[in-house]
Specification:
Number of helices: 11
Radius of gyration: 18 Å
Strand order of the largest sheet: 4-1-9-10-11-12-13-14
Strand content: 15-25%
Shape: globular
Structural class: alpha/beta
Order of helices and strands: EEEHEEHEEEHHEHEHEHHEEEHHH
Helix content: 25-40%
Length: 304
């Protein structure tokens, strides 16, 4: 099989991770049990996820002209990712994320975007040939919305399918939504984007219905331990969650999105692609860290 080509446009961060018994409440200090540093950022994570699952990946983003940027670039290149379209920003520091992971695997994250906040529509234009040649373009919302919207238009004009992971949740204009092939929010993001409250399967179904009414062709909602809900014109598919020994959930969403993009780029139908992505996400919860926890193709296929 020819390797699918995926263009990922998004953020690159360095994660500073503290493990603690619980995530601190406002005003509370907790003593952590360990600390480590790892490469992260939703865009870079999803690029690495896709590369480890067999795709040829081009990453479009910005990092600072600093040591963190040097390490981020080297890490992406070590994964075989094309970084020729990554801009080294002389004026902004590389992005960082401060993450607390509790003993039950849940997490809380604060991000200082740095150079990610300066990703420009012109940076997307520089990648237009790669976007046109790609099987799928994958985006998130850790870079400026105007740049995300511009990238969606560039891909739509080229006929390249767009997978948008709307994380963190933010308002997306109707024109952009109409050009998205697959929207992949988690449960909370789906409700926020649809203007709903509540939780549970019925609420997520209604959120998917409302999002599709805006023109989004397919909506895939990740529901944590409840699994995945994939909704398209001819119905819905619910994929149950997988019981794993959870260590850290930080990279589960990014693993899911990278895997979904790979499966779709290989020609899989949406339900089949969501099953594959659900396996990848489950495996990512069994190891600490973000990029270090992202599984290989062999691991995903072995999970069955």
């Amino acid at each position: 099989m020819t390797r699918p080509h995926i263009v990922v446009i998004g953020s690159s961060n360095t994660d500073f991770v503290v493990r603690a018994a619980n995530i601190p409440s406002p005003g509370e200090t907790v003593l952590g049990s360990s600390f480590f540093e790892a490469a992260g950022g939703k865009g870079a994570n999803q690029a690495v996820a896709a590369a480890r699952l067999g795709a040829a990946v081009t990453f479009v983003g910005r990092v600072g002209a600093d040591q963190l940027g040097d390490r981020a670039m080297a890490g992406l290149q070590d994964e075989g990712i094309d970084t020729g379209l990554v801009v080294r920003d002389p004026d902004e520091a590389s992005g960082v994320a401060l993450i607390v992971v509790s003993d039950d695997g849940e997490n809380a994250i604060a991000v200082a975007p740095g150079a990610n906040s300066q990703l420009l529509p012109s940076d997307v234009d520089a990648a237009s040939e790669s976007i046109a040649a790609a099987d799928v373009m994958l985006l998130q919302l850790e870079t400026p919305m105007r740049t995300v919207s511009h990238a969606v238009r560039v891909a739509a004009d080229a006929g390249t399918p767009v997978v948008l992971n709307p994380a963190p949740a933010a308002e997306i204009d109707a024109e952009t939504l109409r050009e998205i092939s697959v929207l992949t929010p988690n449960g909370g993001e789906a409700l926020k984007l649809a203007g709903l409250s509540g939780s549970g399967l019925d609420a997520w179904r209604e959120a998917a219905r409302r999002l599709r009414s805006t023109g989004v062709r397919r909506v895939v909602i990740t529901m944590g331990s409840a699994g995945v809900l994939a909704v398209e014109s001819d119905g819905e598919t619910r994929i149950p969650g997988r019981k794993m020994e959870v260590v850290d959930t930080t990279a589960a969403g990014d693993s899911f999105n990278g895997a979904l993009a790979v499966a779709l780029a290989e020609g899989a139908a949406l339900p089949e692609a969501a099953v594959f992505a659900n396996r990848a996400a489950a495996l990512a919860t069994t190891k600490p860290g973000t990029q270090p926890s992202l599984p290989t193709r062999e691991e995903v296929e072995a999970l069955g």
